[in-house]
Specification:
By secondary structure, the protein is an alpha/beta fold. The chain has helices at residues 48-55, 78-83, 101-109, 117-130, 146-158, 176-191, 203-209, 227-230, 234-241, and strands at 10-19, 22-32, 37-41, 63-68, 71-72, 86-88, 164-168, 195-199, 212-217, 220-226. The chain has a single domain, classed as Rossmann fold. The protein has a 6-stranded mixed beta sheet with strand order 6-7-8-3-9-10, sandwiched between helices. A 4-stranded antiparallel beta sheet has the order 2-1-4-5, with helices on one face. Strand 4 (63-68) and strand 5 (71-72) form a beta hairpin. The longest helix is centred in the last third of the chain and has 16 residues, at 176-191. The structure holds adenosine-5'-diphosphate and magnesium ion. Residues 48-49, 91 line the site of magnesium ion. Magnesium ion (MG) binds at residues 48-49, 91.
């Protein structure tokens, strides 16, 4: 088969979502290559979480399509996306606070009727070791720090053995020491072949992880390209700071 007929790894086209009168996302198109690590940034309320929700199947778009290796995912329930390898984390970790760290990984895995407890537990211990949370295996989730909860949230997504993982603000509210660890884990996962999209506000953290980033403002993708270029783009700076600045940082009002 000639290479130009190979469908993109992950492709969203023309995704839109309204909530009543609010246009949360308008006509979002985004392609992600296999093995890529891409950022999605933008000011508060610009539509990043709504986009992740659509890309992970948690929200049905009003229009548009989502394909994984050519297979249409749109219109399918979230568990269908998950079963085909699209996993996500939540901006606010959705943990079982009164369960142990281990159970937080095992219990969701057992919602798949074909999963065995022994297998799920083995996988969970592997994930905890990878994330260096293994010494917390039997702690209550609620006893973890904010950053450790973010890591555990990543662990839950990893239990699905995903092909693509969508991380919603993995750096927000994380202690700087743990931030470096989370960045290292994300890089290691990517080196192992996992395709990753990171939504975050922390531009320095994003810049240290991704080569490419897309930018949203008021529901619209306004830039998409090499992170260094995009973060210097006057329109992007304007979207973030509300003031127009050139490459040297001089304000133009
Ligand atoms: P971001 O993640 O970039 O901060 P969101 O995707 O959460 O942005 O929100 C985009 C816009 O959509 C905001 O104006 C927000 O208030 C609105 N919005 C998001 N989710 C809902 C919802 N469930 N109901 C109504 N409005 C929503
Ligand atoms: Mg958000």
């Amino acid at each position: 088969m000639p290479t130009d007929t190979v469908p993109p790894f992950f492709a969203a086209h023309g995704l839109s979502k309204h909530f009543g009168g609010i246009r949360a996302v308008a006509d979002l198109s985004l392609e992600i290559d296999q093995g890529e690590i891409i950022g999605l940034i933008g000011p508060n309320g610009s539509g990043k979480t709504t986009s992740i929700n659509m890309l992970a199947g948690a929200l049905h778009p009003d229009s548009g399509s989502i394909r994984l290796a050519g297979m249409a995912l749109n219109g399918q329930p979230a568990h269908f996306f998950a079963r085909h390898g699209v996993a996500r984390t939540f901006q606010v970790p959705r943990l079982f606070r009164r369960m142990s760290v281990l159970e937080n990984l095992v219990v969701p895995a057992l919602s798949n009727p074909r999963a065995s407890r022994a297998h799920a537990e083995r996988k969970a211990r592997e994930v905890l070791e990878f994330l260096r949370l293994d010494r917390l295996t039997h702690e209550y989730a609620r006893a973890l720090s904010g950053g450790q909860q973010k890591l555990l949230e990543v662990g839950r997504a990893l239990m699905l053995e995903p092909r693509l993982i969508l991380l919603d603000e993995p750096f927000a509210g994380v202690h700087p020491r743990l931030l470096e660890q989370i960045i290292d884990h994300i890089k290691a996962l990517n080196r192992q072949g996992l395709t990753i999209m990171i939504v975050d506000h922390n531009l320095d953290a994003i810049r240290s992880v991704v080569r490419r980033t897309a930018v949203m403002a008021r529901g619209v993708k306004i830039a998409d390209g090499a992170a260094d270029d995009v973060l210097r783009d006057p329109d992007v700076v304007h979207a973030y700071t509300g003031s127009r600045k050139d490459r040297e940082g001089r304000a133009h009002g």
